[in-house]
Amino acid sequence: MASLLDGSIGSGLAFLVLPELGGNFPFLGTPFVSLGRTPSGTPWIDNPWIVAVFVVTVAMQAYGGATPGKLVAGIAVVGEVDARPLGLVRTLLRWAAHLVDAILLIGYLRPLWNPKRRTFADSIVGSVVLVTRQPLPHRWFAPRADAAAHIGPPLVWQAATAPAWRPWATWVSAVACGIGVLFSGGMSTGIDGTATELRCTMTTPDTGSLGLAGATLHQTTTTTTSTRLGITRQTEPPTRALSVTWALRGTLSPEDWANLNVTFTGTNGVSRSQSFPLVDAPDIDPTMTLTTDALDRLGQEWTWKAWVDVNGVDSPACTGTGPAA
Q1: Listed residue (78, 249, 256) closest to 154, CA to CA
Q2: DSSP, res 184
Q3: 49, 118, 130, 273: which could form a disulfide with 122 (CB 3.0–4.6 Å)?
Q4: Domains of the chain: which residue ranges?
Q5: What averages of pLDDT result for each successive group of 10 residues across the chain (325 residues)?
Q6: Which residues face 145 on adjacent strands?
Q7: DSSP character for 26?
């Protein structure tokens, strides 16, 4: 239950501030996730909101014994030797050790038969999970006399009273978990597609046997969004489909061969070209699909031209302009 509540905070937070991430980051997501990048290439550590919540959550677990989900569930992770919160290093090691637990989920099922109800991660770092809302304070925050009295095997496993901050921290955590749950489900997904066409015009008539009368660049951009509680976020990077249609006039004899060519040139000097073989003169104007990066890194303004070469001889080209996609 605590893991699900923590995961709901992660999922809701990611939806609000970095929806392409999907809620996968340490401590507030799946038990063990890659520290890599989101599908759009943005590292989660570049988002200040996620970093702030991550730091707070780690600090709560390391020095208070509980993440927000554990506070709400009324459990705490403490050391087997002193019954106190683990501290930063052992908390991070325990999180990393969950990789072992994730193998076929055996580690997460291990408490069912382990006498001390521990996962492999708990055994590795020497921790136990207590059902308590009054864990002993971390040694840094305990009175010296109290800390000294509990050196060695724990004489008691929880404090006589909960610290003053714990009740309000539990309420704040409950609110955070509730909001996370609301923003983790009940979503509607929408797909929005926009299509544009750009034409290039002939400056010189093509009088060849297979003449070019012009060309059209087709661009379709598809955006996937998700809406939860009336808030809409883009959940995937936009996808783009590009194609060019060559308007041809004339015929191509069996002995001839031809290529359909297109070049895009940005004002920054970047140029991209693609060529397609034409085996026979088609009954309809041929349309060829371009690679999705054909317009990448061309700058804010670019020009394009299309032409046909027959037996290695280039036809006059048509030219056009277009904004960066």
Answers
A1: 78
A2: T
A3: 118
A4: 2-182, 188-323
A5: 86 80 61 46 76 92 94 94 93 91 87 91 94 90 60 68 89 93 79 91 89 94 87 83 93 87 93 89 84 88 94 94 70
A6: none
A7: T
